[in-house]
Design brief:
Helix content is 33%, strand content 27%. By secondary structure, the chain is of the alpha+beta class.
Length: 178
Amino acid sequence: MRYVALLRGINVGGITIKMADLAETVSRLGHSGVTTILASGNVLFSSDEPDAAAVKTGMERALSERFGYTAFVVLLSRDDLVAAVDGYPFDDRDGWHSYILFGSDPARLDELLVSAPQLDPADESVLPGDGLLYWQVRRAVGIKSPFSLLAAKPRYKSTTTNRNLRTLHKILGVPTTR
């Protein structure tokens, strides 16, 4: 199975991990075709392990032990990432950022969606997807938007991470190898 691991909170806030070290750690777990994309914690790899939960748990444990922080990983198949990107519901607009917020706990995603304040569509919009939330925000509002501030709360740290649509296209542009 070809997987994509999206790590939360690395190379920000004092947690610095070199991508070569990250790739080595994932390879030592017995995974193959390991490739990192950008320096924001995106790892493509193949695994013969059929249990995705075991892959996720093993990766979080190994990263925590090696790099001395509490690792949080959102793990999905490459096919699921393709479906998520293909399903992006918002039009590409100048002056806007397009994101997908991924989650490993559907209840937390539901909570985020329900807890989101009434969003001003002139500034941002959020729509549900399958195990994710699609989000588009005006660049001028950015990380100070109501939804961004809500999603950044500590209660969501261990189960969610977001990626810009451009980053996701870069991940998907990496050739599939074993």
